[in-house]
Automatic annotation (TrEMBL):
Positions in coiled-coil regions: none
Domain GH3 middle: 368-448
One Pfam family recorded for the sequence: GH3_M
CC per GO annotation: cytoplasm
Name of the molecule in the record: GH3-like hormone conjugating enzyme
GO-annotated molecular function: acid-amino acid ligase activity
Keyword Ligase: yes
UniProt superkingdom: Eukaryota
GH3 C-terminal domain: residues covered: 464-579
Keyword Magnesium belongs to the record: no
Family (UniProt): Belongs to the IAA-amido conjugating enzyme family.
Keywords in alphabetical order: Ligase
Amino acid sequence: MESAAVNNYCNNKSSNENDVVSWFEGVSENAGWVQIQTLRRILELNHGTEYLKKWFKDIEIEEVEGCALEALYTSLVPLSTHADIEPLIQRVADGDTAPVLTQQPVTTLSLSSGTTEGRQKYVPFTRHSAQTTLQIFRLAAAYISRVYPTKEGGRILEFIYSSKQYKTKGGLTVGTATTHYYNSQEFKIKQEKTKSFTCSPKEVISSGDYKQSTYCHLLLGLLLSDQVEFITSTFAYSIVQAFTAFEELWKELCIDIREGTLSTTRIKLPKLRKSVLDIISPDPNLASKIEVNCKELEDLDWFGLIPKIWPNAKYVYSIMTGSMQPYLKKLRHYAKDLPLVSADYGSTESWIGANLDPCLPPERVTFAVIPTFSYFEFIPLYRRKQNCNKVSDDFIEEEPIPLSQVKVGQEYEIVLTTFTGLYRYRLGDVVEVAGFHNGTPKLNFICRRKLLLTVNIDKNTEKDLQIVVEKGSELLTSKAKAELVDFTSHADVGNQPGHYVIYWEIKGEAEERVLKDCCREMDASFVDHGYVVSRRTNSIGPLELCIVERGTFKKILDYFIGNGAALSQFKTPRCTTNQVILKILNVCTTKRFHSTAYDQIKEQINTI
């Protein structure tokens, strides 16, 4: 196929819903071939860059045939991490206009959220980044509309937030990837193509104050409640956060709806006030209706809030996998029988896969890799034997393989080569191949690779922690009128023996005996062999459960927002070594409990 035809094949921008599905069916049917062409396009675009010249030297990429190019590339260019390319990105940020990573000048840098590794990272953002975001949103909308059709011209209640942008020393614009997208032409095009329009004007999205933006999102969503077709945010956390705020704000919101005003105590930003006041008008009947519904909902602990207030909403749409899974219980509480649809799989570095089965619950969702967005490799991973010595993580890895060679049931770490200047970049995400859609793999997200609780020879992943916390929270709910709001953890190695510390914020009251039982249950629920052996021999101390005061995790959110993160991008860190976060947690701790799960075994050992 000629180059122009390949570009056509890989970048169909037709507005017709069936066309975007047909486009994906085509590229997924020939995913292996499309991947080779995607790699060729990336290398042809950027072959003159400093980074690629270092490895390819005088080799003419155009003269190398498909499969040979794939083999040549992976043999010459080494695997990389962000630490490897960070000095090069910093040069670009400082104003170096030479083609360092990309042939085209980079004018914008994305910031990762910083909630995974404790600090934000620069990642190049280009027009291609915005275009792929538009394409995956259109693709997702096409598949969702087959199951949950919505009215053309309907409204979306979107809890979306931009962060503040700033300039680097070299004049490049820096902000989160979501901020760049919301400011792009593609965001406007997305609404036109999908025939669905957000309730809030751009001034609400980009106010820079998430509390004021949330109030306005809710107010406008209420005023347009009969027109709202679905509710969405980037992460499930943001939706839960918004409706938790609604429980406290509904009376003030009803006053504003009744009088056509905007709270002067809540909303202080002049541009934000003007943009909202230009839209709203008094609606006493709607205010009275919402008041009646909210009084009923209060008696039900807000169960079924979403369908009660937004009766025409068809579903709730957000990223609900990985670190978002702990929020599903609360989200289901608000949604009642309304379907929860898991959004697509991506990262600041690249979009990866689309959810083609929107009717599946989030716990069972898979993501079909989109082979035109980046060139993907997969590092086969194998769990280490339980009696291994201490190592950096719990996987043995093999050499990376291309997308066309992955196998069902195997776990892999994803490696990216992108149009934006990342080459054989280790993403750090662990996925499992659950099946195939035509010729492209469907991935199940497992965990972040380096997020480990470890003290000795123990290795517990984010997923292991979530399972343990879920067991503890089930005990909390069954034995007390309380629920888990949020949690994080820390491996305390400052005191010997080292031990795990799990921080809980809870809503409601729980007796100390119940919390002691929860602590014991979590400690006993870790099944990692290294942990169990270490606990039995007391080389790891008893698990510590710390109960923090209400609002503690909002303080952590405020810390990240204050350092440039956007609410749309925020994820509560599940395992942290960040000293600022630990200080917030420890200052706000009101009760501490230590597990007795292994006390009997210790007594037996001491007797011997």
